[in-house]
Specification:
alpha+beta
Amino acid sequence: MAWSRSSRSPYHGGMIVSAVMSAGVTEARSPDMEYFEDRLADELAAAAGRSAAETTRMIQSLVAGFSEDDLRDDMTILVARVRAAG
């Protein structure tokens, strides 16, 4: 499995979120042939304040809806919340 994306962004309450996803997430396509990766950053920002498990389930649901359940690859997601130093 090839990991295709990792991102870190500020999280509410002094937390940092790190998300790593397989190509099945980032390369998921809509019926209009758009890539989910094009909206991934906005969707992660909307997950602010959620737990890592909630964020993972949210991404799974969004990808399935975006692709209308026509997934063509595995969907592996790892989300971690880390307290910011300080």
